Amino acid sequence: MENVKNCNCSKTKENVRITKRSEEEKMSLTKRLNIIEGQIRGIKQMILDDRYCDDVLTQMLAVSKALESLENVILERHLHTCIKTKIENGNTEEVSKEIMELFKKVR
Question: What domains, with CATH codes, occur in the chain?
Answer without folding.
Answer: 22-106 (1.20.58.1000)
